[in-house]
Amino acid sequence: ERLISDQDPAVWQIIAAEQDRQEYTLEMIASENHASPAVISAMGTCLTNKYAEGYPGARYYGGCKFHDQVEDLARDRAKELFGCKFANVQPHSGANANTAAFMAICKPGDTILSLPISSGGHLSHGLRVNFSGQFYNIVDYRLDPDSELIDFDYVRAQALEHKPKMIICGYSAYPRTIDFAKFREIADEVGAILMADIAHIAGLVAAGEHPSPFPHAHIATTTTHKTLRGPRGGLILTNDEDIAKMVDRRVFPGTQGGPLMHVIAAKAIAFGEALKPEFKTYQQQVVKNAAALAEALTKHGYRLCSGGTDNHLMLVDLRPKDDSLTGAEAEVWLEDAGIITNKNGIPNDPRPPKVTSGLRLGTPALTTRGLKEDDIRQVAEMIDRVLATNGQAASEVAKDVRAMCERFPMPH
Ligand code: PLP
Fold first, then answer.
1. Which of 50, 51, 179, 240 is an active site residue?
2. 360 Cβ closer than 6 Å to some ligand 1 atom
3. Would the ipTM clear 0.90, i.e. be above it?
4. What is the pLDDT of residues 295-343, one digit of tens each?
5. Secondary structure (DSSP) of 198-242
6. pLDDT tens, position by position, 130-186
7. For residue 62, what are the contacts with CB-CB under 8 A and spacing of at least 6?
8. Which residue intervals define the domain Serine hydroxymethyltransferase-like in the entry (predicted)?
């Protein structure tokens, strides 16, 4: 820290301000977390200096002895954590992992069956403006409009009609347990490959708090920075040796050059943390806290899509509380109070994506700080005080948010 502040105070001021923002706000974005000091430290090491194109034992540069060791460690820990035979720890991000996974399975023009972003999918699952929507023939499945759960009859009907090469399950805003076995049944019926994108739930899966995609999925991708609480990055997993070989080729040289070895070291540390018993306790608390938040918000008059949550996140439909309230306004007012959220479209949202009728809330980061169910119920009350007054109470609530942050400091 002193190094940066001495050499470049302009950058240091910004970093310090962000450090302060994180310390004194309640982070409720479902895809974010507070990585451990060890994970963060690893990213500021000399491992960043090295080119290590290729894989352990087969690099295109000299001097990779220690990079081989750290990548092997990361791969072995990832395999142990997710109970699978192969892991590629090099993708720079979740979207990069998906790019390489798609290219390992599909040729340009092949059909992919996925859930659109408007129903909770991720943009890399086929949005027109993303590479996935440009290079592949994307066919959608949907949520049941009443239950807001995956409409498996429709998944099957679409699979039978369009005979996709690949079916994707795993989402960015789906609060319920994913039935991987049911997806695999449909995939087998039409000879498709099943890809599970477990970016959001990876930590829960690793801790046994959500069913594993294995043995059902042929291939799984994830980010490492959400519930898994590692550095920003991606990961690809499989049990299939042929798929594993293609994945390795599609990551490097298919879509990336040199791996971020400092981030791979941080991934190894995060996987090591996730293998410890405390991580299971943490993920159990994440789920308990989400259930407590869902119940409290329902009591305050909000509607939760699908009626609640099974995992770490929920989608709040703001309309039953106040029909004029939008996700965009709610996000800004809550931020004024120091509660950080993101507006999110709800299924069949009549409002456009930059406005929305919903908020997505998650408990991974607050649980890392040590909040438990009673504390979470207080947070629900703070949220309601802000929203019920159209933001008027934000500065009052900000004091309670600050006190809560002081009671539960970030990991240092
Ligand atoms: N897949 C899912 C389901 C996600 O929710 C996300 C990120 O939000 C990604 C992939 C992409 O991850 P990244 O932002 O690291 O590219």
1. 51
2. no
3. yes
4. 999 999 999 999 999 999 999 999 998 889 999 999 999 999 999 999 9
5. -TTTHHHHHTTSS--STTT-SEEEEESSSTT--SS-EEEEES-HH
6. 999 999 999 999 999 999 999 999 999 999 999 999 999 999 999 999 999 999 999
7. none
8. 5-383
Inter-residue long-range contacts of 138-144, CB under 8 Å, 24+ positions, other chains counted? 138/111, 138/112, 138/114, 139/111, 139/112, 139/113, 139/114, 139/164, 140/113, 140/114, 140/115, 140/116, 141/113, 141/114, 141/115, 142/115, 142/116, 143/115, 143/119, 143/347
Does residue 347 contact residue 34 with C-beta atoms inside 8 Å? no
Cβ 172 vs Cβ 227: under 8 Å: no
| CA gap 366, 286 in Å, rounded | 8
Strand order across the beta sheet in which 234-238 lies: 86-88, 234-238, 219-223, 193-197, 166-169, 111-114, 137-140
Half-sphere exposure of residue 189: CA atoms within 13 angstroms, side-chain side: 15
Residue 391 is assigned to a ligand binding site: no
51 is catalytic: yes
Residue 133 tokens, joined: 């929507």
Find residue 114's DSSP bridge partners: 140
CA distance 125 to 253: 22
Q: How many angstroms separate the Cα of 246 from the Cα of each of 103, 105, 197, 253, 254?
A: 8, 8, 18, 11, 10
121 is in an annotated binding site: yes
How far apart CA 336 and CA 370 sit, in angstroms, is 23
Smallest CA-to-CA distance from 224 within 258, 280, 267 is with 267
Asked whether 248 and 272 are in contact (CB, 8 A), the reply is no
Q: Max CA-CA distance within the chain?
A: 64
How far is 191 from 31, CA to CA, in rounded Å?
32
For 146, 246, 345, the CA distances from 164, given in Å and listed in that order, are 26, 19, 27
223 is known as an active-site residue: yes
Given the residues 184, 226, 369, 377, the one annotated as active site: 226
Its pTM surpasses 0.90: yes
Does ligand 1 have an atom closer than 6 angstroms to the CB of 122? yes
Instruction: Spell 47-63 as b/e; 16+ CB within 10 A means b.
Output: beebbbbbbbeebeeee
Ligand 1 site-directed mutation target among 124, 174, 251, 260, most atoms within 8 Å of CB: 124
What is the distance in A from the centroid of ligand 1 to the CA of 406? 31
- 31 pocket-lining for ligand 1 (C-beta < 6 Å): yes
pLDDT in tens, 260-305: 999 999 999 999 999 999 999 999 999 999 999 999 999 999 999 9
Q: What are 137's strand-pairing partners?
A: 111
